[in-house]
Each structure stands twice: as structure tokens, then as C-alpha cells.
Amino acid sequence: MDTQNQAAATVVVDNEWRRWIAENLLLGSNPNDLLQVMVAGGIAPDMAVTELQAAQQSPYLAGAQRLKNRLAKRDWVLDNLRRLEHLRAAEIPRRHRLGTREFFDEFYTAGRPVIITGMMDRWPAMNKWSLDYFASRCGNAEVQVQFGRNSNQHYELDKKRHEKTMRFAEYVNLVRAQSPTNDFYMTAYNDSRNRAALAELWNDVLPLPEYLDPSSQDSGFLWFGPAGTITPFHHDLTNNFMAQIIGRKRIVLVPATEIASMYNHEHCFTYVDARNIDLQRFPEMRRVRPLECTLNPGEILFLPVGCWHFVEGLEVSVTMSFINFRWQNDFTSSYPADRAF
Ligand SMILES: O=C(O)CCC(=O)C(=O)O
């Protein structure tokens, strides 16, 4: 859009202006306000009026308006679910050794988060895992981590650019020495390399047949980092278990039904920072009711598909995440291909 040369009124209405007009008319802007912006942008008033009238009468815009109405109806359905959700207590329930049937009926199929306690008590990892154990058992393994995250505020979106390979013992020493920091973190994204390199550690993790399918290939992702790691607000494309082994994590959740207020600009991400929600920049966030919890070692958090979550490592922390549930968990293949929302 060319906004130069305002006084001479020589700017032509190009397709970028037309896209802007269409978008703003669909958003419900007053055509007179749009006219003023166009004239201030250097478009001759009569040309601006003609273009605005053409847009308002355009059958293309009428088609788009129809889709907008349909989306508004879907938003109404989601908003009803959101309002009903707000009638519940604002907390994530903790359930001790939750049974299969109860988990399935009350949480998995209902898309509700829950913290399950008492299911990891027999895991060898709970007693054996420590920084020393990691270094002594797998120190020579070559692993991949996310590195240099402090230099890029969009480090999660750009995670490919932050891959770094190093010996596991070297990484363990970094974690030991530099806490707290968000500059480096071994995440599930690094898993394709790490699962094979650290295979020995997987022997210390027991299957959870009450909820997970032990025959599945997707048998756990390792997250290991110093205190201070931040995984910004995003949602997963699957249901997910976070099983906490070492250290505590602070987690902020926003149910999937709140998506209309989450400023989801690209793929599964938002720029909203859970630590300091800027209500000037993101006013719709006033409608959202975040749920907060601390996940302790030995606890498993169920994160329903689409549920927004922000995760902060309060201490040196190790988590295993799992997606190999006994029930349908492929929501990825039906995810929209065009991810610029
Ligand atoms: O533990 C973390 O830092 C993030 C975990 C997470 O976001 C996930 O498993 O989807």
C-alpha cells in the first residue's frame, strides 16, 4: 500500500488497498472512516468513494460475509462452552491413581486437564535419575539441544535455527553450572536424535498401561533443562501427558474453548506472555480464565488437545511427555494446512 504523496492525491487503489478495504468492511468498520484513511493515504476522494461502493456491492464480499456469519455461529457455540467451563472451580484437579474408566470418561473424552498422582512411584527413574547419573550412564552420547534462545524472542517458532549437537556430559555440566537460564533446553523437538542416543535412560521409565499403549513407537519424549526454562503459550495437536521426574514446573493452562481470545497468529502459537499479560495489546484476554498449577516430581499432567499451556522450570527439571494413548489421538492429520491464522 503506497501512502506517500498524500497532498497530490495520486495514489492508485491497488489490490493491497482492496484487500484492506475488504478486511475492514468484514470487520464491521464504518465505510466513512475507511474513506478518510484512504484519502489521507493519497487516494483521490471520488476514486476512494467509487472503490468503497464497488466493494460494498461486490458478490465476492457477500460470499466472504456468509463465511464470516458461519464462523460467528461457531464462535457462539465455543463461547457457550467457555462460559459453562467458567462455572467450574478455577483449578486443575489432582486425582490419586486415577482409574482407566474415570480418566477416559471424566478427562480424556471431556478434554479436561487433570494431575494424576501415585502412578510413577515404581519408576526406577524416580530414584536413580540425577545429573551425576546422566553423566555417568550416557555422558558420551551425542545429543541435540535447543541453544541460543535468549537471542531470539521467537525461539519456539524458529526452533530449527536453535539446534545444537554436543556430548551429553557437556550439556549436563551446563545445566549444573548455569541455573537459572532460558538460553538452552533439551526439548521434545530434539527427540529424533536423543531417543536413540539416550536409549539406556528409557529402561528406567515404566509403561502406564492404564492410559498408554505400550506397543506404540511414540514411547516418550525427554525434556531436560536448568531452572528458568520457558516454553511459551502454545497448544499441542494431540492429547499429551507430562510426567515430572526431577524438579518442579509452573504451568499456566487456558482451555481450548478460549481460542477466540488467545490471539493465535500462527500455527499453534500466540504472542501473549503468560507471565505478564498485556491487556492493552491483547484486550480479549480479559475474557480468559487461566488455570495455574505447580507440577511436582512424581505427578502426571494430562494436557488435552488444543489446550494452551505455558511452562516454566522452577528448578533443574526433567520431564517425560507421552502421546501414545490407548485411544484415538490423531488430531494432527485433520489440522488446517494453511497456518497463518
Ligand atoms: O515442559 C515444557 O517445558 C513444555 C512441555 C510442553 O509444552 C509439551 O509437552 O507440549
From TrEMBL:
Q: SMART domains attached here?
A: JmjC (SM00558)
Query: What is one Pfam family matched by this protein?
Result: Cupin_8
Q: Quote the InterPro entries the UniProt record gives.
A: Cupin_8, JmjC_dom
Domain JmjC as annotated: residue spans? 190-339
Q: Which residues form a coiled coil?
A: none
Official protein name in the record: Aspartate beta-hydroxylase
Organism, by scientific name, is Silvimonas amylolytica
